[in-house]
Amino acid sequence: MNKVCANAGAAIVGISNDMTLMLGGFGLCGIPENCIAALAKSGVTGLTCISNNAGVDDFGLGLMLQSRQIKKMIASYVGENAEFERQMLSGELEVDLIPQGSLAERCRAGGAGIPAFFTPAGYGTEVAEGKEVREFNGKPHILESALTADFAIVKAWKGDTLGNLVYKGTARNFNPVMAMAGKITIAEVEELVEPGELDPNHIHTPGVFVQRIFQGKSFEKRIEQRTVRSK
């Protein structure tokens, strides 16, 4: 299988209206910038997007919120995106807010073929409404179902033409678990190399999980909240 695509536009071919997408990243760290920009230009609508958050107003998934391409967000944090907040409060956007650890584990479970699991996170809150509750070691837990997607779109530091991926630092975040949970996984990388150039001991996502890969360009790598230590 030839997994290499020429660019983001070629990589997202097949993504159509009303599909479910997973998009890696945490804040603006490790987001698939090129693919999101391509999706924003594509005009596809009615999407359900699974992502830790939705970028900011003029970058990341915020671009797709502005153009009303997203019907539903499954996320854990909305605090840095005013348009996200406005659409949610006005009822224009359906939002499923999930505790961050539960979101990560639901994606991981989906990739591992585990249909559901019990967790104490969210018990006694709105998160638990309508969900089965069981007690383990004297503590109540709620049943959470796995998450999967039609397409998972991730960002890696390096990748080879077979789809093996290496993430860098905190950009690793949600990318590895989401890469496992898509029916089709697209990886955009900063550097695309030939097979054998990556140390097998350093590979975070094996190529078996990746169907499409391309070398991105012009990564902005914005910093969402710049914090510096005082002298």
UniProtKB/TrEMBL annotation:
<dbReference type="InterPro" id="IPR037171">
    <property type="entry name" value="NagB/RpiA_transferase-like"/>
</dbReference>
<protein>
    <submittedName>
        <fullName>CoA transferase subunit A</fullName>
    </submittedName>
</protein>
<dbReference type="InterPro" id="IPR012792">
    <property type="entry name" value="3-oxoacid_CoA-transf_A"/>
</dbReference>
<dbReference type="Pfam" id="PF01144">
    <property type="entry name" value="CoA_trans"/>
</dbReference>
<dbReference type="GO" id="GO:0008410">
    <property type="term" value="F:CoA-transferase activity"/>
</dbReference>
<dbReference type="InterPro" id="IPR004165">
    <property type="entry name" value="CoA_trans_fam_I"/>
</dbReference>
<keyword id="KW-0808">Transferase</keyword>
